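Technical note accompanying the year-one report. For the benefit of new consortium partners, we illustrate the data format agreed upon in the data management plan: each record pairs a sequence with a structure-token string. No post-processing was applied to the example shown here.
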Amino acid sequence: MRLSCAACASLALMQASATAYAAAIKIPDNLQPDPSQTMAFEAHAAGVQVYTCTAAKPGEAAPAWSLKAPDAVLSDDHGAKVATHYAGPTWEATDGSKVVGKARASATPSTDAIPWLLLDVKSTAGKGVFSQITAVQRLDTEGGIAPSYGCTAAGIGQEVRVPYQAVYRFYTAK
């Protein structure tokens, strides 16, 4: 992977801040990446979780909110945008590289926030910071939970955007 000098400097700053943060957070065992992986960098996400009111499925009593997609911006410790996060789940770096994940494990440290996740990588695209990513963690979440009200038969198809924040860690093979 070949990065521009600016991308290299940004990546180095993200790696240094990730190391400091790593000591401050207790991650459940089921969300630990494989020992063959090492953290490449982390970024801080701010955005929304988009939910759609969907019809009741067989056996369900009422319509319910279902996750449509995240819509967030990921930034480094200095507030510089490094990526966007959207349906897939997909992360797209400012250098154009992309990574698509699939949830492997989750934990719910807080009932007031969306779960923490460990995701395996389904695919990558482009040449850049995401081209060698093998796993993704979503940690330290705030908000983002679907509303517990407002999804009724009359509201099928309605969308709500619930603010959330999280820390995402991106891993590569050692």
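Partners are asked to follow this layout when depositing records. The chain has one domain: 5-173.
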